[in-house]
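Follow-up to my earlier ticket, as requested here are the two runs.
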Amino acid sequence: MADAAGRIATLAEEVLGTPLPIRVRAWDHSETGPPGAPTLVIRRRRALRRLLWRPGELGLARGWVAGDLDVEGDLYEALDRLSGLLWERGPAGPPRSRLRTGLQALRDPALRTAARRLIALAGPGLPPTPPREEVRTSFGPVHSLRRDRKAISHHYDVGNDFYELVLGPSMVYSCAYWDGPDSTLEEAQRAKLDLVCRKLALKPGQRLLDVGCGWGSMVLHAAREYGVSAVGVTLSEEQAAYARKRVADHGLTDQVEIRVQDYREVPDGPYDAISSIGMAEHVGAVRYAEYTAILHGLLRPGGRLLNHQIARRPQPDEEAYHVDEFIDRYVFPDGELAPVGRTVTQLEAEGFEVRDVEAIREHYALTLRRWVANLERSWARGMRLTSPGRARVWRLYMAASALSFERNRIGVNQILAVRTPEDGASGLPLRARDWR
């Protein structure tokens, strides 16, 4: 099996129609590719079997999570080079996998010789077992209460110590708000929390509901800096325990309540304001009308909602949308993205008056790069705190997501909406974004 790297590079060029833009090092220590480029390290032959049995993103993801594949050099550069090679991107619609298309073409008679060579390189046997970090089981109807709890637990109950390592002292797991790249992550996260509070026009004595409260940073900031009484709800037991301890440590137990509760189960409206920061991506299209109706019902007339949500680009055929397999199996089970226009329309259909939409796409790229740097700086400890496979999942998805925000493949928006009363008095200032 001498020169496996050369054989792989030749096969890849036949399948994809262009030379590989990165170096390749195979299990037999052979190496090929452009000098100075990042190196794709294929540690085990079974990585090729994973691709043969599941061509495309899922096969690659399984190889990465299992440690069969790795990258030496700049991970961002490697992902950027491979993205243009592995995915066809048209002016609209989702990218199409060149790898899946090419491997399927190997079934054609003219390419059967190449197929036999690939099989010979991959070695005999059934496909390797997927890594244990992969979600394999559905738990009832999509976006039912039970299934949503399982999905949230998969993503968030992986160890508070691990999230402390990645997120830093702020413990905020959503897009920060940067003055510039020289700001610290903690400064940018505090600025984001304060921006949300100012958009909601929080005042002492008001009631705030934070939907998907995470580790409690938003409710703590709002209570401490703006004097509100706050309720935070999360489906993660680990998040709730951590947030309650933070509340107690700050002496705010009379002012802040943390509940393990679904947004569909909150019984005690009305609230003066609602924040939903990085939570609506978990709601799903089948539940979004219900989500907006429930939040509308929990607000008093004149109350404000701040919905902070990642958005994807619209597709010519919206019915064809599906979550990519790596994200669904390893990161956010059942998570869904919607175009920002659809979100605005659904909020308005429920009776909200949408008053402001602020796009902060570049801010999320900066945030993700800081999280990746935190993880890479303490890589050995990160693997001990969770698992090597889980740490690899987080590193890949955060780095790939940073590139997606930078390249305008996805965005993130803060939507300010008001439950405007019948007399039309919105309570907002005449000048937009004068958040006082």
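Run two:
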Amino acid sequence: MQLHGIHHLTAVSADARGNHAFYTGPMGMRLVKKTVNQDDTSAYHLFYADGEASPGTDLTFFDWPVERERRGAASVTRTGLRVAGEAALVWWAERRRGTA
């Protein structure tokens, strides 16, 4: 089997409502599925993707009541999402300025 990139990323959020507002609002992603964590059914598992739910566009979050992150060794502090090219970067810049 030949793998061509990341299938999806999973992160943790302590604020499911705020997480949903950000990813479906400013980020323009679609909530494609909301389930519960299979290992901890008290926590939501939120799945976001592009408008067509294309493979490789998934970003998922477990909703756990965790303390605010403290940066240090072995911490992930940024997540980068790839875009299709320069036109997409221009579109995102305009969207962030509120002109798109």
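The only thing I checked on run two: Residues 90 and 100 are 10 Å apart (CA to CA). Let me know what else you need.
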